[in-house]
Design a protein that fits this description.
Blueprint: H1 7-24, H2 27-34, H3 42-50, H4 69-82, H5 88-100, H6 104-116, E1 121-124, E2 140-144, E3 147-158, E4 165-171, E5 182-188, E6 194-200, E7 206-217, E8 222-223, H7 229-265, E9 267-268, E10 271-272, H8 277-303, H9 309-338, H10 348-361, H11 366-375
Parallel strand pairs: 1-4
Antiparallel strand pairs: 2-3, 3-7, 4-5, 5-8, 6-7, 9-10
Helix pairs in contact: 1-4, 4-7, 4-8, 5-6, 5-7, 7-8, 7-9, 7-10, 8-9, 9-10, 9-11
Length: 382
């Protein structure tokens, strides 16, 4: 199998890296962006749109370029390397995937706005106590005349502060953990009854708590089919996990390089600490874990478009397991090899570890996916 990038993919890689280097060359710039009201700079977001990145996975008629898993991987790896703050994953990849597979009419209406950067989407899915299970939903959407009334709360909505619209998972039938009876709704952030509280997360991005108090929605707000939102959620989550794997590889690559450079310059006893063989071995171990993660990220990108849901889900879960293990190992080793500076707010290394820790937890940690694969009878290597 040929793993080389095509000419178009190489051009995309160069373009994205150039754009992010322009905005994130200085770590002080990232700190300044994080202090903006939405946790990122709107001019950077506009540059994403102008470069065509926000519409990359969409068809040309929807303002995009028809990119797939490899194109998503290229962009997300660059985002991870730069520690970029923009909600590209949530708006374009995660929510964009849901909209793309809903109805052609909704996709044609909504996705050009997402590609242009004028509409930012966020998935309001997680509820308190639900952990990582996408089917654990209690927020209710009950019928009231011709409309639906949303009542409940969503937690840890990544990018929720900047979102102009939410994709909300609600229960329209069945019991709390049933996969049937879940319906997705498109809710404008300015709809009466919608309130949000934003806060910074450990990795300097933003999340929000969203409350829905008797939010009235017409049937046209339903995304896809009534009661059939779960397959859309799982498909989008698999694509988002593949993208997260690529982002993690980008962050790990930068962190390994940062650590090796530090070993080459930090001196103790009159010599650089990189001359100590024990530390060289630890740096090599970090590189090995990075390459294992990279191979699984490529595998996840290739499998993200797999139509067989079971095969896709198991492949993505296997990739997430390796990414979690590699991220934890590399982050811990980098911190130990740096010493005290590795945990300071002023030094970039610790921020890579924070982001990797958040990625490891998002959409399920390694133990969660390993347990699910084992219960499904998949062939795995512990």
């Amino acid at each position: 199998m040929d793993f080389d990038l095509t000419d178009d993919q190489r051009l995309l890689k160069e373009s994205v890296e150039k754009l992010l280097d322009k905005h994130y060359a200085s770590f002080d710039k990232r700190k300044a962006y994080a202090k903006q009201p939405h946790g990122f700079d709107e001019t950077v977001w506009a540059d994403y749109a102008e470069a065509g990145i926000l519409g990359l996975p969409f068809s040309e008629s929807q303002g995009g370029f028809g990119g797939g898993g490899i194109e998503n991987m290229i962009v997300m790896e660059a985002i991870g390397n730069a520690l970029a703050l923009e909600p590209y994953l949530t708006s374009t990849i995660l929510c964009g995937e849901i909209i793309r597979h809903s109805t052609p009419a909704l996709a044609d209406e909504l996705l050009p706005e997402v590609a242009a950067g004028t509409k930012i989407l966020a998935l309001a899915q997680t509820e308190r106590g639900a952990r990582y299970d996408l089917n654990d939903i209690s927020l209710a959407a009950r019928v009231d005349g011709d409309d639906y009334l949303l009542e409940g709360e969503k937690s840890l909505v990544i990018g929720g502060g900047a979102a102009t619209s939410f994709i909300v998972s609600a229960r329209t039938g069945g019991q709390r953990r049933d996969t049937k009876g879940i319906t997705l709704f498109l809710v404008d952030a300015a709809t009466p009854g919608v309130s949000r509280r934003t806060y910074p997360t450990q990795d300097s991005t933003q999340a929000a708590e969203i409350s829905f108090a008797q939010v009235r929605l017409p049937p046209s707000a339903i995304i896809g089919e009534l009661h059939e939102g779960y397959p859309l959620l799982t498909r989008a989550a698999d694509v988002a996990i593949a993208a997260l794997c690529a982002e993690a590889v980008g962050a790990m690559t930068a962190l390994v390089k940062l650590t090796v450079d530090y070993l080459k310059t930090r001196k103790q006893f009159g010599v650089t600490i990189g001359s100590f063989q024990a530390l060289q071995h630890r740096a090599v171990d970090m590189q090995v874990m990075l390459e294992q993660a990279r191979s699984m990220a490529i595998y996840a990108a290739l499998m993200a478009g797999e139509p067989d849901a079971t095969a896709r889900h198991q492949a993505i879960a296997a990739a997430k397991i390796q990414i979690g293990r590699s991220a934890k190992f590399i982050g811990q080793q980098a911190t130990q090899l740096h010493g005290g500076i590795g945990v300071t707010m002023e030094y970039k290394g610790g921020h890579y570890f924070k982001r990797l820790t958040m990625i490891e937890q998002q959409f399920g940690d390694a133990d969660y996916h390993l347990r699910n694969l084992a219960q499904a009878g998949a062939k795995i290597a512990a």
